[in-house]
Design brief:
The complex is a heterodimer.
Chain A: H1 7-17, E1 22-28, H2 34-47, E2 51-55, H3 66-77, H4 82-93, E3 101-105, H5 107-113, H6 115-125, E4 129-132, H7 144-149, E5 153-154, E6 157-158, H8 167-171, E7 178-181, H9 194-207, E8 212-215, H10 221-230, E9 233-236, H11 238-246, H12 258-284
Parallel strand pairs in A: 1-2, 1-9, 2-3, 3-4, 4-5, 6-7, 7-8, 8-9
Helix pairs in contact in A: 2-4, 2-12, 4-6, 5-6, 10-12, 11-12
Chain B: E1 15-16, E2 19-23, H1 29-43, H2 46-60, E3 66-68, H3 70-76, E4 80-84, H4 95-108, E5 113-118, H5 122-134, E6 137-143, H6 144-149, H7 151-159, E7 163-167, H8 174-187, E8 192-194, H9 205-228, E9 234-239, H10 243-249, E10 259-267, H11 278-281, E11 283-287, E12 289-294, H12 319-326, E13 331-336, H13 337-351, H14 357-369, E14 378-382, H15 391-403
Parallel strand pairs in B: 4-14, 5-6, 5-8, 6-7, 9-10, 9-14, 10-13
Antiparallel strand pairs in B: 1-2, 2-12, 3-4, 11-12
Classes of the chains: A alpha/beta, B alpha/beta.
Chain lengths: ~280, ~400
């Protein structure tokens, strides 16, 4: 990794040392507007986010449910672009050198920018990893090596439909952490049964050394706590975007309480996550 | 690019040169692979083709006639014009050729629930039709804008027992309907088969849909040889996603003397920014599971397509067309809304055939091309759909023009 810091590995090592699960938050860059989005992003670590997924808005987010679709479109309407997304990261890094940021989105905006240009700009801005939802192992050879050479992680998704035959392809060349999509479905719709999640995460653990984050359908502090009793981190996206959306005025603009409300929600989730294994240990005694 | 054959693609990963592929979320990838395996097995099984042929003959009404458009030929005063009359198929368009093939595949795979996207509603009606025929549950996603402009087809789908789900996200047209169908598929992976209506989507769809639509070109080839004793000089078809066009073109791609022309929708004009001409006005990108030419902005955001014809109103095009464009085997041109409207009316008056607005775009180019060619020149155009669904739209537009 060419001498640069591996913030993702450092963060998971720290979580392990503290014997607690991590909270990963997702918000779209530029949602609902540039200034508010920057304020939201900047306050996430204080509110309790351990890792940050920053959505790169796309006009046609096929794997996302209504909440994130709407957030993506709000961001685009307010002038979001790939360049501006990376400016958000750059501004964040001025005051936070430790919290990993993973850029998450769809391939077309990256492809249009050019893979080389994208990874160079993402690295320079201070991003740590990339998740490209519609770039499965069968197609990622044109981007993954570039991402890795730039010292960024290429994080793959495993899903309930990833069968044993495919699992090696998904795990091979994956780095940073594994993102387990806990339901067959789109973001923010339904939630997985805990037993299914446990079985799936255990299967991944048997086959990979990478930390595992579980996402899709985790909405409440209780669900986040349940997820980190099974996996290394819980990802919450749609639920936060919904809190954001509730704080928009009739004109679609942010109302004064928006940032605090979202951060409070993050705080509640973080408390759930941080208390999870303590409760577990107490229950075991 | 120098190639020995234009008919060998795609490669085993579904690529036509740079284009095509399988750009889908991991959740869908195992499904896409299972469709690929099932289709490969069906394609190699003579009983599958025999079953399909039986339904195409007795249910769809194939072969469709090849018709010499004598009055139009005389009117234009140049090349001899033939129509491949796929508008005479059951349900009124070429779409059912593909739906019949895919529904038989879905049955082989034991799937009980069918989903589809539709723009003009022709693919939705064809899907609802085959689902009714085989007793399968059918959900059709359709943009709210399209539901408004294609009401007769919405009624037909409902009558056939399908549920039409309005899509209000994005521009509420075909691309958004396809997003929504993909979201449904991700959430219902176990029991659902997605019948994609055009040569779009992840591999194997562009290949599979082409194969099922190639019945058009295979028949046309035999029919024109029977009628004229030779191959046509020029083939013309309209292109939205491009399934009727690839169906006509594919069996002729390796005949270098046959000129092949695809007609995209130029909407209000290529320079207006309001068109659906992905090849002429777009750039390569990735959407809906494949890499192809797309209407998009400098940041890779997909832009709105516009066409008078809901069936052409799509910001992408089948990946094989992108490859045929780059290799220059096929010429891609365009026709505007106004040109299509004029062709629509002329065809009705001269030939007693009301074309759909989609093939009216192809006809518009026939109208400009035929007069420049000698009488021995043979143009074969795919009349891929009939215009019953469009009469209300056209009537409103003509009314508007009279008052303008």
């Amino acid at each position: 990794m060419s001498g640069q810091r591996d913030r993702i590995a450092e963060r998971f090592a720290k979580l392990k040392a503290e014997n607690r699960g991590g909270l990963v938050t997702f918000l779209s860059a530029g949602d609902p507007d540039r200034a508010t989005a920057q304020e939201l992003l900047d306050g996430l670590p204080i509110a309790g986010a351990d890792l940050i997924e920053l959505g790169m808005p796309f006009s046609d987010p096929m794997a996302d449910g209504p909440a994130i679709q709407a957030g993506s479109l709000r961001a685009l309407k307010s002038g979001a672009s790939m360049a501006r997304t990376l400016e958000h990261v750059h501004a964040f890094r001025r005051h936070d050198q430790d919290t990993p940021i993973v850029l998450m989105g769809y391939y077309n905006p990256i492809y249009r920018m050019g893979g080389e240009a994208f990874v160079a700009a993402a690295r320079d801005a201070g991003a740590d990893g990339v998740i490209v939802v519609d770039l499965p192992p069968e197609e990622d050879e044109e981007l993954r090596p570039l991402v890795r050479r730039a010292g960024l992680h290429f994080i793959r998704l495993a899903t309930p439909t990833t069968d044993d035959a495919r699992l090696p392809a998904v795990l091979g060349n994956s780095s940073g952490f594994l993102y387990y999509v806990s339901i067959a479905g789109i973001t923010g719709t339904r939630s997985a049964a805990e037993a299914d999640m446990r079985r799936a995460v255990e299967r991944l653990k048997r086959n990979s050394q990478l930390p595992i984050a579980v996402g899709f359908g985790i909405r409440t502090p209780e669900q986040a706590a349940a997820a980190v009793r099974i996996a290394d981190a819980a990802v919450v996206g749609s639920a936060l975007v919904e809190v954001l959306a509730r704080n928009l005025g009739k004109d679609g603009r942010a109302t004064p309480g928006l940032v605090a409300d979202v951060h409070n929600h993050v705080r509640a989730l973080a408390e759930g996550v941080r208390g999870a294994r303590v409760q577990q240990a107490e229950a075991a005694r | 690019m120098q190639v020995n054959t234009y008919r060998a693609g795609p490669d085993e990963k579904g690529h036509f040169g740079l284009y095509g592929g399988r750009f889908v979320a991991e959740t869908l990838m195992p499904l896409v692979l299972s469709v690929e395996r099932a289709y490969a097995a069906a394609r190699a099984d003579p009983s599958f083709q025999a079953e399909l042929d039986g339904f195409l003959s007795h249910y769809v009404g194939r072969p469709s006639p090849l018709y010499y458009a004598e009055r139009l030929t005389q009117h234009l005063g140049g090349a001899k014009i033939y129509f491949k009359r796929d508008e005479l198929n059951h349900t009124g368009a070429h779409k059912i050729n593909n739906c019949m093939g895919q529904v038989l595949l879905a049955r082989r795979m034991g799937k009980q629930r069918i989903i589809a996207e539709t723009g003009a509603g022709q693919h939705g009606v064809a899907t609802a039709t085959v689902c009714a025929r085989f007793g399968l549950q059918c959900v059709v996603y359709m943009g709210a804008t399209d539901i408004e402009r294609q009401k007769p087809n919405v009624f037909r789908m409902n009558l056939l027992g399908a549920e039409v789900r309005p899509v209000t996200s994005g521009t509420a047209t075909l691309k958004d309907a396809m997003n929504e169908a993909l979201r449904d598929w991700v959430a219902n992976v176990a029991d659902t088969f997605y019948i994609i209506g055009s040569v779009a989507g992840p591999h194997p769809y562009p290949m599979m849909v082409r194969d099922f639509q190639s019945v058009i070109g295979n028949e046309a080839r035999e029919q024109i040889i029977a009628a004229e004793g030779r191959l046509p000089d020029t083939l013309i078809a309209c292109i939205g996603g491009g399934s009727n066009a690839i169906g006509l073109f594919h069996p002729f791609l390796d005949e270098p003397e046959v000129r092949i022309i695809g007609v995209e929708a130029a909407g209000l004009g290529l320079h207006s920014g309001k068109h659906a001409a992905s090849l002429t006005g777009g750039l390569p990108g990735v959407l809906h599971g494949n890499r192809t030419y797309l209407l998009q902005d400098a940041d890779g955001q997909i832009t709105d397509a516009h066409s008078i014809s809901a069936g052409l109103d799509y910001p992408g095009i089948g990946p094989e067309h992108s490859w045929l464009h780059d290799t220059k085997r096929v010429e891609y041109v365009s026709a505007t809304d106004d040109e299509a409207l004029e062709a629509f009316q002329l065809c009705a008056k001269l030939e007693g055939i009301i074309p759909a607005l989609e093939p009216a775009h192809a006809l518009a180019r026939v109208m400009t091309l035929a007069p420049t060619l000698p009488k021995e020149h043979i143009i074969l155009m795919n009349m891929c759909g009939r215009g019953d669904k469009d009469v209300f739209t056209v009537s409103a537009l003509l009314e508007g023009k009279r008052h303008a």
